[in-house]
Amino acid sequence: MPAYREPRRRSPPLPAPRGPLSDAVIDALRTGADHPAPAVGDADPFGDDLQLALYILYELHYQGFEGVDDEHEWSPGLLALRRSLEEPFLAALRAGAGTDGDVESALSGLLVEPIGDDGHSVSHFLQDHGELWHLREYAALRSLYHLKEADPHAWVIPRLYGRAKAAMVAVEFDEFGAGREADIHARLYADLMTDLSLETAYGHYLDAAPADVLATVNLMSLFGLHRSLRGALVGHFAAVEVTSSPGSRRLAAALKRVGAGPAAQRFYDEHVEADAVHEQVVRRDVIGGLLADEPDLESDIAFGIEATGLLEDRLAARLLAAWRSNSTALRGQPG
Amino acid sequence: MPSSPDRPARVTLGAEGPILVEGPVEVVGDDGTLYTSRRFTAAICTCRRTRTYPWCDTSHRRRVKPERAAGDEPEKKTDEPEKTDEPEKTDEPEKTDKTKTMDNKTDGAA
Ligand code: FES
Ligand SMILES: [Fe+2]
Ligand SMILES: [Fe+2]
Q1: What is the CATH number of domain A101-324?
Q2: In the predicted model, is pLDDT for residue A23 greater than 80?
Q3: Sheet containing B19-22, strands listed edge to edge, beginning at the edge strand earlier in sequence
Q4: For residue B88, what are the CA distances in angstroms to A76, A154, A271, B50, B106?
Q5: Which atom of ligand 1 lies at the shortest distance from residue B50's CA?
Q6: Is the confidence at residue B78, as pLDDT, over 50?
Q7: Domain residue limits, chain A
Q8: Which of B41, B66, B108 lies closest to A114 in CB terms?
Q9: Per-residue confidence at A114, pLDDT binned at 50, 70, 90?
Q10: B57 contact residues in A (CB cutoff 8 A)
Q11: What is the ipTM of this complex?
């Protein structure tokens, strides 16, 4: 295996705009002006332009962009614009998520295992029909999250205390390699990408990612960066940990079937076992601890679970529609 | 946290699913094989259905028939037998029921 090349050694170039909102953000970052004030108006809250504008603004809090002053992270004009983009996104999530408000019932649907494929699951599709090119596209698109895996969830740590905090930090410690650099989950993911001959540089696939991919990552940043949404962040984290283990088993099988190397399988093998533990700890102590300390957050936790399902469903529909018609799920590629 | 006389390792039992044991921990399998987990907590399978013995892999979950939306049939023919990924180690009959699964399952890893 070639020497490991850190994906985050450099920051990525700014992406190409997808409409007036993302264009204004990119222009402000490029010129250093701090007064982009395009009207958000009736932009589609799940659409390419709004989601990309938001993604770029959030990315200033993680890795930034090549040639863009790091200080823009706290530019008042950009923060005001971010707010105006977050509001319709959050409203659309609230409108689309269930209104039950009950954590147990929100989780109960995730704690059973469907027999066979219901026709809506990407991991079932990949396990049963996935070819190498499907897996490469899936890995490229998911890299927007996995190359910063668990980072958005670290924002919640200072907002928690007691049992919820201790448990959240324990799970995050595992995500960050339990003290061993080579075991950081983001690094395991870069190794997976190398096995699939993908480019591992951070942000490389941003231009190729459709809005439905950006939205799943923006969700975590939105929940993570707002203390008022700490319950939703915890709910989101629980939803992904609970569903990850069986889905990872299917993806490991898919990778094995197409002949991907051991590093590609290792990422998902590790998640089968790790997330079976993480699920237990998150449900029992992160959610349990937070509910004991702040019972008023129950409906927010349930909202985080449901909003995650909503966006994952949209993404799955997008990927499956493309692949079932034998075309690419990536943007800007000849289909 | 390693077990010590002042701070014995804690084992947590739940109503269903695995036993949680503070790690690192060694487990001797039923055929004498030694397994080691260095994770902060290990989840030891109690249902005997796991495919990552002795660690839980969520195979203890209740299995349900997914509800398909009308007119939304996957390309599989309906007279084909349902393919289930049956765990090898099960000695219990398959427990299934018709409980509705939430249609929003996520496919992401965490
Ligand atoms: S207890 Fe979880 S797989 Fe057996
Ligand atoms: Fe995890
Ligand atoms: Fe992980």
Answers
A1: 1.20.910.10
A2: yes
A3: B11-12, B19-22, B41-44
A4: 59, 38, 20, 8, 25
A5: 3
A6: no
A7: 20-95, 101-324
A8: B66
A9: confident
A10: 245-246, 249, 272-273, 276
A11: 0.92
